[in-house]
Amino acid sequence: MLYIVDNNQTSLKILNITSNNPWGIIKVPTFKINETNENEFIRLVQTTDSPFVEFISKHYFATMQTKMIRNQVLPMLNVLLMIHYCIEIMFDIEAMKYMV
Question: Max CA-CA distance within the chain?
C-alpha cells in the first residue's frame, strides 16, 4: 500500500500517480468517521478488488482485510459505530480531567 500524507497540512495539491504494474492501481475503500457516507462506503467495500479496507477516526485507524469486513463487519456496522462513539466519549471525558 502507498500512503501519501501532507505532514505540513498545507493546501493540498492533486497528484497524478501511475503504475507500471499490469494490474494497475486499486483504491482502498476508506471510512472516515463523520465524513464518509455509510451507504457509499458499503457499496465500495462490496465492489472493490482491494484486499484491504481502512477505517480512520480522530484517535485511531485500522487496516483490515476486505473479505473479513464483507463477511463479519458489515452485518454489524451499526453496533461498531456505537462502540466507536462510546470510545470517543471516553477520550473526551479523560481529556476534560486535564482542562481544569
Answer: 58
